[in-house]
Every structure is written in C-alpha cells, then in structure tokens.
Design goal:
single chain; alpha/beta; Transcription Regulator spoIIAA; globular
C-alpha cells in the first residue's frame, strides 16, 4: 500500500489521502497511522481518495471509524450534540463534516452501504465537488 497526501484549498484546507492498494488486515495500521499523523499535525478535514483501492475490509472500515471519531473528538460540531449526531446518523440526516470519501470502488461502495457507513460518511465521484462540500 502506498499513501500520498496533499492539501487542496476549498472553503477550508482539505487534506487528501490518495490510497493505492487495499485497506485490509495487513495494511489498515499503515493507513490509520498516516491519518493519525496528519490529524496530529493539524489536518481538520480529510478526503480519502479510494480510486486505486479495490478492496476495503472490516479492518479498513474500523480504521475509517477511528479517523472519524478522532476528528470528531478534536473538532466537535459546536452546534450539534453527541445525542443529535447519533439521532442524525440513525435517521440518515447527519453527514460527517470532516471526513469524506472519493471514488470508492463498486465493491467498497457496497461494503460502505451494507455496513451503514454511507449513512454518515459521504462519498463523491468528483474531486472538485468533494472539496467544495467541506
């Protein structure tokens, strides 16, 4: 697995993580450690580009959940309580303002949908639209 990162300027600075390779039990720790490093160094908004990631396993899903939770803990939505977030996720009305996905493979998109991740982490197929959504 290889991860390249760069920053894009939209309404806010967005850190793009371009992942090349599967995110699975043998690579999730590399992915998660890189995201932790980015967050620890000041990244507030992360777009994970999965265009070259054919497969995301349950370990990869846990890593994405970890990133979501870390971003939310460090930068809570000032106008949304934890309880409102939980209700919004359940209702499908809350979307993470800090973590989004770009170009998931058909298989990964199905996994996100089956696991419920699509209820609160948005996916995009166009980078400019994704950057503008932050």
């Amino acid at each position: 697995m290889e991860i390249k990162t760069f920053t894009e300027k939209g309404q806010v600075l967005v850190t793009v993580m371009h992942v090349d390779g599967n995110i699975d039990s043998s690579t999730y720790n590399i992915f998660q450690a890189k995201a932790d490093e980015l967050i620890d160094n000041g990244a507030h908004y992360i777009l994970v580009d999965l265009e070259h990631t054919p497969y995301v396993s349950s370990a990869g899903m846990r890593a994405l959940q970890h990133i979501y939770e870390k971003l939310r803990a460090l930068h809570p939505d000032s106008d949304v309580s934890d309880e409102e977030v939980k209700k919004g996720v359940s209702a499908g009305t809350y979307k993470s303002p800090r973590l989004k996905l770009l170009n998931p493979s058909k298989e990964a998109a199905n996994t996100f949908e089956m696991s419920g991740f699509d209820m609160y982490i948005e996916s995009f197929t166009d980078k400019a639209t994704a950057i503008a959504s932050f």
